[in-house]
Write a structure and sequence with these properties.
By secondary structure, the chain is mainly α. Helices cover 70% and strands 6% of the residues. It has seven helices and three strands, in the order ααβββααααα.
Length: 234
């Protein structure tokens, strides 16, 4: 999320366009999912069944599939070995549901195959969480106390969160590619339904691109505003 300092052109030039892109991405993914949630698959396959078929094809039958509350709250929990699908995905037999469920199954396959980027993302999660929590408080505290080194430390921590999002991007794209390939190879969707599922996953992918754009823009803004400060300001 953006943080506000006294007015500066860097926010208007860098951050605001990225924020608008993020808003557009959220609207697009909601519309895309809502549209294709109305299109039932010809095989009447539910999201849970599609995910299960992909797991079985990759010898990952030990992974459970469970419903979870919320809208588009679907995710794979590698520690628990569980794919959690939202109510609109788990028991729904729509193209949107099958596409989203296949994407989450794609994450499980990534872990099962030892896909490097997702292992790297998992490894840096604790560091990135600390960075995202402490970054702006350190910057603000540094400004209040006029300690340049605190500001620099805050910017460094913010950069750690940016790195996490940067690593996340290829992970999400790869999961979608795996999902679409599995849906085609296993004939879970036909030739008219596959492009529709691809549109849903492409819209979802744009949200990750937009989130990275916002973080990068904010990181660059912080560097331009405070990156040259050293030690204690007088």
């Amino acid at each position: 999320m953006p943080y506000y300092f006294p007015f500066d052109m860097y926010y208007l030039i860098l951050v605001l366009p990225a924020v608008l892109l993020a808003l557009f991405a959220q609207i697009r993914v909601q519309r895309s999912f809502r549209k294709y949630a109305q299109v039932r698959t010809r095989r009447a396959l539910t999201g849970a069944q599609a995910a299960q078929a992909i797991l079985q094809a990759n010898d990952l039958t030990h992974i459970r599939i469970e419903p979870v509350a919320g809208r588009l709250s679907d995710h794979y929990d590698p520690k628990a070995g569980v794919i959690r699908l939202s109510e609109a995905v788990y028991g729904a037999d729509s193209v949107a549901a099958v596409g989203v469920a296949a994407h989450e199954a794609g994450h499980a396959v990534q872990y099962g195959n030892g896909y490097g980027p997702i292992r790297l993302r998992q490894a840096i999660i604790p560091v990135s969480r600390v960075g995202s929590m402490l970054a702006m408080p350190l910057v603000l505290l540094g400004l209040f106390l006029s300690y340049g080194w605190l500001i620099q430390l805050g910017i460094l921590f913010f950069g750690l969160a940016v790195v996490f999002q940067l690593v996340t991007l290829p992970v999400e794209f790869n999961a979608s590619r795996r999902a679409l390939a599995a849906l085609e190879e296993r004939r879970l969707l036909d030739e008219t339904e596959l492009p529709q599922a691809r549109r849903v996953l492409s819209a979802a992918a744009l949200t990750y691109v937009a989130a990275l754009a916002v973080s990068l823009a904010q990181f660059l803004r912080l560097l331009l505003l405070f990156g040259g400060q050293r030690g204690r300001r007088r």
